[in-house]
């Protein structure tokens, strides 16, 4: 059956945890907890940055972009994960699957771009502090954000290519959501063009990682040149949160790509575990990491809590007698 001719009639079957269907409802509770933490954490980050004018600076703008992409990534997988694990509904139509696939990959693509922009922010703050405010202006940051959105739209041709593929094999997907690499393996015709285009997009993400590594190489080189040990520690501490965000995003992504391409003999559970770590863990951990390690965000959060709970004297300077 060709989705290009009758895509509305084509449907896929999603998979939860292979061989553990009876435990799906129990598995939903940790997933639900991760969703709640992710949505509350990233929503709070956006609220704190918006409410506190002192946080209207480049680093916090990029952090807001990261929180937005994490929220988008979380909400992209929530509907199908809820239906598979809680309601036991596995069927998903081809158009809905395409939409979800686009959202998941687009927000992942944007997150990679945001992490690269944040690496540039840290490079400018440590290596070129005198030019920092003149280069990273609000207008320029807005253009960077627009560029990230436009960059993610390069995924649209991928959807057009997928619509042309006939799917005549088993329509069972490996996860509780739709991924490109999972869908094309079910096509019963040559999908080399899809693979090549998908590989090109993956190379863009790899380029982001290479540029991030290059920026950190230059940051470390600049920090080593600082004579004061205290200043060295202070400079490196400003990069800890971003470095952790880079690790928890790229390590599962690379692991999942390797499994899909070379791990055909690996246990199905390993594919599911790696995919869930890739999509669930970064959106959950990013707001926690930045709240713990970023002092301005932590202060802004405490100030916001004080205002909401109306604690007396909170955030006020003591009067001089």
Automatic annotation (TrEMBL):
Broad class of the protein's primary localization: membrane
Membrane topology: Multi-pass membrane protein
Membrane-spanning parts: 26-49, 61-86, 92-120, 141-165, 196-219, 240-259, 271-290
CDD domains: 7tmA_OR51-like
SUPFAM superfamilies in the record: Family A G protein-coupled receptor-like
Gene Ontology cellular-component annotations: plasma membrane
Cell membrane is among the record's keywords: yes
Gene Ontology BP term (one): cellular response to lipid
Subcellular compartments: Cell membrane; Membrane
All copies of domain G-protein coupled receptors family 1 profile, residue ranges: 41-290
Name of one Pfam family that matches: 7tm_4
Molecular function in Gene Ontology: G protein-coupled receptor activity
Keyword field: Cell membrane, G-protein coupled receptor, Membrane, Olfaction, Receptor, Sensory transduction, Transducer, Transmembrane, Transmembrane helix
Family to which this protein belongs: Belongs to the G-protein coupled receptor 1 family.
Protein name, UniProt field: Olfactory receptor
Originating organism: Grus japonensis
Lineage per the UniProt record: Eukaryota, Metazoa, Chordata, Craniata, Vertebrata
